[in-house]
Design a protein that fits this description.
The protein is an alpha+beta fold and about 300 residues long. It folds into two domains: about 45 residues, no CATH class; about 190 residues, Immunoglobulin-like. The chain has six helices and ten strands. The strands form three sheets. The protein has a five-stranded mixed beta sheet with strand order 3-10-9-6-7, with helices on one face. It has a three-stranded antiparallel beta sheet with strand order 2-4-8, with no helix packed on it. α1 packs parallel to α6 and α4 runs antiparallel to α5. The longest helix is centred in the N-terminal third of the chain and has 23 residues. The protein is globular, with a radius of gyration of 24 Å. The termini are far apart.
Length: about 300
C-alpha cells in the first residue's frame, strides 16, 4: 500500500513543518491545541443523486391551516432531509433518518415506516396498509435537525434489498383533533441497495471522512448524510464539516435549513477519528519537536 504510506509520510512531515514555523516565528504555543488544516471541498456537488424521481412530499409547505398553530418561526414547515427526487439510497439494513422540525408547541411527533408498492399510479397518504414500524417522540420545542435510527432490537426486519419503503414524519398539534389541519406531515422514500464489492473492499481501510466521497460518488444518500452527521456530532467545532453539511443540503435545495442545529442527533458511542486529526503518535512527535525547538529558541534569545 505505497499510496497510503506516502500520504502518511506527507501528513507527518506537514505537522513537523507547522511546528517548526510556529516556534521559530515566536507564535504563542498551547500544549493541548488541536490544529486542523482547511480541507473544504472544491465542488458544491457532494452526492451523486440517482435519477429516480418518485411521488412524495418532502416538505410540508409554507402555509399553515387553521389547526396548524403549533408551529412557528422563520421556516415554519416540516422537511425531510432528502434529495428533491423524494428518495434516498442506502446500504444499511437499519438506516438513520433525518428531518427538520420548526419551532413548535406540538403534543407529539410520529415517525412511520411503510412497505408499499410505489409503482401504483396514484399514491394515497396515509397508505391503506398499516405501518410496519412506528415510533412516537416527545417534541423538541426548538427548531433544528432531528434524527431516528431504525432499531435492531424491536422485532423489525431489516430493510429488503431493492425494496422501496415509504417513511413519514408527522407533527401532531392536538391529539384530540383528528382532522388533517391538526397534523403536519412530510413523507418520502428509502431504498436499500447492495453494496458494490469494490467499495466493500475499500471501506475497512478508510476513515469516516475518507468514506464520504465514496458514498457520494456511489449515490448512497443515507450513508453519506449519516456519516457526515456523526462526524459533526463528534467534532462540534470543525468548520469544514459544517461547510460540507451546508453544501450538501444546498445541493438538494434545502439551503434554508442548512444552518440549523443538530438538536436530535445523538453523539456516536465510538466517535470516528477523521483523517485531518493527528494521531496520538503524531501528536507526541510534534510535542517533542516543539520542546526541542523552544529550547533552541531560548538559547538563541539568551545569546
Amino acid at each position: 500500500m505505497q499510496i497510503r504510506s506516502t500520504a502518511r509520510y506527507k501528513a507527518g512531515k506537514g505537522w513537523k513543518l507547522l511546528a517548526c514555523s510556529l516556534v521559530l516565528s515566536g507564535f504563542p504555543l498551547v500544549a493541548n491545541a488541536q490544529i486542523l488544516p482547511q480541507t473544504g471541498l472544491k465542488s458544491s456537488k457532494q452526492v451523486k443523486v440517482p435519477k429516480v424521481d418518485v411521488p412524495g412530499k418532502r416538505e410540508s409547505g409554507g402555509t399553515r391551516g387553521p389547526g396548524e398553530v403549533c408551529i412557528s418561526g422563520k421556516v415554519a414547515l416540516l422537511a425531510l432531509v432528502l434529495p428533491k427526487t423524494n428518495i434516498g439510497f442506502t446500504t444499511a439494513a437499519y438506516p438513520q433518518f433525518f428531518w427538520y422540525a420548526p419551532s413548535n408547541k406540538a403534543q407529539q411527533v410520529r415517525f412511520s415506516l411503510y412497505k408499499v408498492d410505489r409503482k401504483l399510479q396514484k399514491l394515497q397518504f396515509p397508505p391503506q396498509e398499516p405501518p410496519i414500524y412506528q415510533k412516537i417522540f416527545k417534541p423538541i420545542p426548538q427548531s433544528g435537525i432531528n434524527s431516528f435510527r431504525l432499531p435492531k432490537d424491536e422485532k423489525i426486519d431489516p430493510l429488503a434489498i431493492n425494496q422501496d419503503y415509504l417513511w413519514s414524519v408527522s407533527i401532531i398539534c392536538n391529539l384530540q383533533d383528528t382532522s388533517p389541519s391538526s397534523r403536519i406531515t412530510s413523507y418520502g422514500w428509502v431504498r436499500r441497495v447492495p453494496l458494490d464489492p469494490q467499495i466493500a473492499k475499500k471501506l475497512p481501510q478508510l476513515s469516516q471522512r475518507d468514506r464520504l466521497p465514496i458514498y457520494g460518488q456511489a449515490g448512497l444518500w443515507f450513508n453519506f448524510i449519516t456519516t457526515l452527521a456523526d462526524l459533526r456530532a463528534c467534532n462540534v467545532g470543525d468548520r469544514n464539516l459544517l461547510t460540507q453539511w451546508q453544501r450538501t443540503l444546498t445541493q438538494v435545495n434545502l439551503e434554508y435549513i442548512s444552518q440549523e442545529k443538530l438538536l436530535g442527533v445523538q453523539k456516536p458511542q465510538n466517535c470516528p477519528q477523521g483523517k485531518d486529526r493527528p494521531s496520538v503518535s503524531q501528536t507526541e512527535n510534534v510535542k517533542k519537536i516543539i520542546d526541542r525547538l523552544r529550547s533552541l529558541r531560548n538559547k538563541r534569545n539568551g545569546n
